[in-house]
Amino acid sequence: MKMSKILMASAVLALGATTAHAATQGTLGATSSGTSDVQLIVAEQVQISGIDDMNLDNGDTTNTYVPTGGDVSATTAFCVHYNNATGVDLTISSATGAGSGYIMTDGSGNNITYQLEVDEGDDGGATPHAEAATIQYTTMASQTLNCGGSDNNSIRTFVTDSGAPLGVPNGTYNDTLTFLVAPNP
Fold first, then answer.
1. Cys-Cys link to 80, which of 29, 111, 141, 152 (CB 3.0-4.6 A)?
2. 55: CB partners within 8 A, 6+ apart
C-alpha cells in the first residue's frame, strides 16, 4: 500500500512538471465560474517555390552552346518561405553528379561539368554553392508566405567556354537539381 502511494505521488509530480491544460468547473450556486485554457500549436514550416527549368545559352536565347562562342549560363529566381525566421539551410544536389559535382550528361557517357551560384537576396551578390553541400543562409527566407509575390533569391548555373565543353560531342546534356530547404533560425 505504501508503495502504491509513492507511485501515485510520483505520477502527480510528473504530471505537474508538464504544461497541463486543466479546465476548472464551477460550483453550484447563484453564479458559477469555470476556466478553460486555449492552446494552438503552430508547426514550423519552410517552402521553396518559383524554381524554373534552366536552359543554358550564351545570350542568344537559342539554348545552344557553340564552342568558342562564349560562356553559357542560366538564372532562375525563387522564393524561400520560413514561418519562424529568415535563416535556413540549403542543400542542392545533382542527380548526375551524386556528390561529385554538378554534371550534365548526354546519356551516352559524355559529361559536362557545370557550376552553380546562389544569390541570397537576389541582389547581385552570388556565391558558389558546392554540389551536395549544406550551406546556412541567414537572410534567405521570407516570413511572408510566397514571399509576398516577389522571389527573394536566385540560382545561376553556368559552363565556362574552355576545357571539357570544347571536347565533347554534340548532343543534348541534362541534369536535375534537387533543392532541400531546412529551418535554421
1. 141
2. 63, 74
Query: What SS3 class is residue 130?
Result: coil
pLDDT, tens digit, 9 for 90 and up, residues 89-113? 999 999 998 778 999 999 999 999 9
Q: What type of residue is 171?
A: G
For the whole model, what pTM was predicted? Answer: 0.77
Would you mind telling me the total number of residues written for the chain in this entry? 185
Q: Which residues of 107-143 are buried (b: 16+ CB within 10 A; e: fewer)?
A: eeeebbbbbbbbbbebeeebeebebbeebebeebbbe
Pick the CATH number of 49-183 from 2.40.160, 1.10.1060, 1.20.1070, 2.60.40: 2.60.40
Q: Cell numbers 568558342 label which residue?
A: 68
